[in-house]
Design the sequence.
């Protein structure tokens, strides 16, 4: 068998595993796997550094299928090269309940799936984060320990999404030379030819942001290999536009949008078998082909062993630090660091904005945790995300710990996902809370993948004042609380801010949002510093000696208002509690007893939050009093806005007294 | 005074109005107005077709300040050219409660503010929609009635945002030659020099998508004028990269990020006055300068009068149609069209997906409303957004009514805002409901600006099946319901779908989201077709003869489940109502009596919706039974998923019976 024959048969194994799995599932996307099989075969056979039997080898190359609908391409490659998670039964079980082979690649379902993709453009932006993490860790641990490539397969859809521009320009600026993107340039999108909707010269576009670009025939293995060699030789990030035929081999559907997103049908598959000379029945890969693939899967075993040797021979402290980081464990003693910091706060009782409290906490955290990587989407001074330890990362020096992400909230969030997925680093990044909208698809993926990413979201209400309604989050706390597996923290003072940071960093199972004020806040916690009370999600801050008639729940900047309202109400002789609610998610995860005790028996329940009511009915019920926003904000000094929108201690007091008088 | 002197003094009037207003407000952004004053002066003095005394003249050029933080530039221009809404007192009242001069330009506050900007990149993408609307209306009404330019001033931030790429590539593809973008190329972003975060050659990037590009000295009025002439002569959309100095004239802050976003301070402003030879006190514009500006504001009066003459002379039907469209009124008889269509549905009782019901309704709507402009973000066949009337719009022919937006959800949504803002057209566009996350910032602006944009969001739950959790909205209904002034519709069958479409089109005060299924649904409405019951937001679908013990609320695809659950529960002898809730927003806008009657007195309240619980406590209370999702979905055939996640009639029945047995 000639080398070309071998290649073709190996690629055809991908094509038919994919087409047959889609056929059996009665849904899925055969077009991309059949079209990109040649590119993937060359990459996995000749270049990708990975070991299917040690799939989490830290220095493996990362392969990201950004065009996640082509999931069968990835599953086929994992099965063929010998990843244990993806058996032929899993392939047969494509898109069925409980299988590892979901419709789109789901991180955590199987080793070898480096990230969850499907929402277009995300994988490309994750890969920028991975490539950045590689350079940062390389700067810290050296070529012997961290030195790998990140490869991406992206389609037209990925490149039309705006997030791709943020990712491309960031990667180009930072000269991430070990990032190589294959553009599956098949001229087809779901609605038909790409020419229906786009006329962009992608190579020229990438080149405009400092990328090395090439075009090649995506069905010519030699041309593909040459292009990869050239890309690896370049010190710029590389785009290889591979001209391919979607659904390659399908007699009537190849090259059309009919090959994209639905089963080809028995007849078309039969025709493809004839056209490509593939005689094996569905889900059977001829043993010689499977052997070739499994052999390809062993190609990097020597590399891996050498790497293990280098790690074993490395300085013991360096090695131990690397291993700790890759396990995602915080260093011993971190809890003490936070506890000591809180003790200092008790003394100082600083009256500062929580964005400033966050900076103060970060100053302590970044000193204790060398793995944090900070950044901001061009709001460094406003988000207070930079501390004395975080030297900027530049195209020429990756030894820093701070990323100027530019005005790229979405790209930042997706890059942070990539950094977290890579391992060895804990990313945090800032923008204004209102702009969580700009990065919401990536925040959702942080949550879906369970990645420890910390979103530092300042200017968290009308309290930002004059910038007005476009910049004032109103619905955002509710909208973020709606996302499963995301923790939304809204601390009320410096102590709570430190505690929320501690919780966000200690939680390896998912992302956190810290919602922080622009305006100054007084210290509200007066006791119980030794415990992390924010960990309960909600806790009693003040209470009357006898049973309360009124409970006021509040978060963040409105805790101060709740405490002032309590004074006014108590002055009228009505017994009132105040509960701080730094995290609804953590609160509803507490025992039923704890929740019942915190919600309490008071007849009047009030919630104060400078956002919409939605999410609060759970605590106060539909009959509870809500002091907050019912529409968009306005542009004015913030004190005027709080008065204008009636978010004041007096308004809360009046509403409570009216309710009490009606009830009695 | 030389021509150059006149220009300089006119530009300086902008500079000092801006710097002084920011100073007085103690917050704001002096840098952009001072830097871009020359560009704006040339544009407004020599090119912009507008009439300050007839600010809503339909054929005026549109000017969009995409870099909305530079709002004082726009307010200064409106004041200087004589727009009545913006008086010198409004300028003095910059960023104060109740002023028309908000921190960022707010559509609706004053004539001349063509769109709300501030969230970066949105204005540029709105402008693409405006330029597109101009071409579409030109194709319909001719050069004599619609033939104007759309100008944009965008900053580095706008161009770093991903949405800008979606906007640029769409405009380039469609060859929107009357769109001209000034890039305020001042090399400065908030964190410092743009070189901290970006190295993109913007001209090369735009050229890669078919734009005409030029660079010019943004402080040389002749060079600016020449560039505008060349841009107007080109049949491609045009970028003019104007090299400017941020904070031009400020002695120590000009050219640095210190000029960007805070008051310059008295000393710096004094220095600028000296440097630029401006002796007038704050908020005083020397009368000769003001005269020159006011004269410039009169430049297009002749044009406007001629246009009015052409419109008056036009075919009466054409003129009446144009005027109706620009008023945003639906044609008479539209209600009858929908009523007749509903009658047909009563006979047929089609069992179809609501995305198909939507297509059926659109077939009727698009025949009756020539002003609808459909589209999809590359999911035409899935969103069912194309009907027989909607020929595609192409770069060479704008007589169509369908836009292939490409995989650009965010760009689509923002372009739709621009189309709606332009007037004369009603845009609707589709993608999957989960991808409302991708266009959320633009949806928010539709709501904030009160624009009639219809979002056709299909595949609205785990009911989409095999594509899995990345494609399954779970939190999205709640997250959308949290946005003020947005109506979220989730119809349960073909009749409800028609009614929701009618409501969305009739509402000129804001946007609507239609959440539609992929899977087929039976007809659930059995009576009361003559009235639009969806207009009440929620209504009783089935009820027992005697007082109900159980009320089940449901939306969309889960109404079928609620009805089946009712049967099971009634079979156990427990009296049960079912309430369909096509729109929570409309429901909570009803009278207290209506709401109380619909919520009812039943002891057990249940909500069934294949999403998260948030937003339902308002109807069922914290003690109500919720049958829905508590986390992300999974990949499997949809029937398996409903069973797996326990969203079934049996599960609802079991929960209700258990609750009834506990209670009794």
Sequence:
């Amino acid at each position: 068998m000639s080398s070309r024959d071998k290649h073709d048969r190996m690629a055809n194994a991908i094509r038919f595993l994919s087409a047959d799995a889609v056929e059996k599932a009665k849904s899925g996307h055969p077009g991309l796997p059949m079209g990109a099989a040649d590119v993937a075969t060359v990459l996995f056979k000749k270049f990708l550094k990975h070991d299917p039997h040690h799939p989490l080898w830290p220095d493996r190359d990362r392969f990201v299928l950004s065009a996640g609908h082509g999931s069968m391409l990835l599953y086929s490659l994992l099965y063929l090269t010998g990843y244990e998670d993806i058996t032929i039964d899993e392939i047969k079980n494509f898109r069925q309940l409980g299988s590892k082979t979901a419709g789109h690649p789901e991180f955590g379902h199987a080793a070898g799936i480096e990230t969850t993709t499907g929402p277009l453009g995300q994988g490309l932006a994750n890969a920028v984060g991975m490539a950045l993490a590689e350079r940062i860790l390389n700067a810290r641990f050296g070529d012997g320990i961290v030195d790998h490539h990140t490869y991406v397969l992206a389609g037209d859809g990925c490149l039309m999404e705006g997030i791709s521009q943020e990712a491309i320009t960031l990667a180009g600026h930072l000269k991430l030379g070990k990032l190589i993107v294959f553009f599956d340039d098949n001229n087809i999108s779901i609605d038909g030819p790409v020419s229906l909707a786009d006329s962009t010269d992608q190579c020229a576009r990438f080149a405009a942001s400092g990328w090395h670009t090439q075009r090649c025939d995506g069905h010519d293995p030699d041309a593909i290999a040459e292009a990869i060699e050239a890309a690896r030789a370049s010190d710029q990030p590389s785009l290889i536009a591979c001209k391919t035929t979607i659904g390659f081999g399908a007699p009537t559907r190849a090259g059309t949008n009919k090959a994209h997103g639905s089963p080809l049908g028995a007849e078309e598959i039969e025709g493809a078998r004839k056209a490509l000379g593939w005689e094996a029945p569905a889900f059977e890969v001829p043993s010689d082909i499977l052997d070739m693939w499994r052999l390809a899967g062993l190609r990097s075993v020597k590399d891996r062993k050498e790497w293990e040797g280098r790690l074993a021979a490395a300085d013991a402290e360096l090695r131990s630090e690397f291993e700790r980081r890759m396990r995602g464990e915080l260093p011993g003693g971190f809890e003490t660091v936070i506890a000591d910091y809180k003790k200092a706060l008790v003394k100082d009782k600083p009256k500062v904005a929580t964005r400033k409290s966050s900076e103060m906490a970060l100053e302590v955290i970044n000193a204790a945790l060398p793995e944090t990587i900070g950044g901001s989407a061009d709001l460094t001074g406003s988000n207070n995300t930079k501390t004395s330890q975080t030297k900027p990362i530049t195209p020429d020096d990756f030894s820093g710990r701070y990323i100027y992400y530019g005005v790229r909230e979405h790209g930042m969030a997706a890059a942070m996902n990539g950094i977290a997925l890579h391992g060895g680093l804990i990313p945090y990044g800032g923008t204004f809370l209102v702009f969580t909208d700009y990065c919401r698809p990536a925040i959702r993926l942080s949550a879906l993948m369970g990645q420890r990413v910390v979103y530092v979201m300042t200017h968290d209400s009308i309290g930002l004042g004059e910038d007005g309604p476009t910049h004032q989050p109103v619905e955002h706390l509710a909208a973020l609380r709606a996302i499963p597996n995301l923790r939304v923290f809204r601390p009320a003072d410096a102590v709570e801010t430190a505690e929320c940071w501690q919780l966000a960093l200690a939680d390896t199972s998912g992302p956190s949002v810290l919602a922080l004020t622009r305006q100054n806040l007084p210290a509200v916690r007066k006791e119980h510093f030794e415990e992390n009370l924010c960990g309960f999600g909600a806790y009693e801050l003040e209470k009357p000696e006898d049973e309360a008639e009124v409970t006021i729940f509040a978060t963040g900047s409105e805790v101060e208002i709740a405490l002032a309202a309590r004074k006014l109400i108590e002055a009228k002789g009505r017994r009132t509690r105040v509960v701080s609610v730094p995290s609804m998610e953590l609160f509803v995860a507490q025992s039923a007893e704890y929740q019942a005790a915190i919600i309490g028996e008071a007849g009047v329940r009030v919630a104060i939050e400078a956002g919409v009511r939605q999410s609060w009915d759970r605590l106060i019920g539909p009959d509870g009093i809500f002091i907050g926003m019912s529409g968009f904000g306005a542009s004015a000094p913030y004190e005027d806005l709080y008065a204008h929108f009636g978010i004041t201690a007096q308004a809360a007091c009046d509403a409570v007294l009216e309710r009490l008088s009606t009830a009695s």
The two ends of chain B are 93 Å apart (CA to CA).
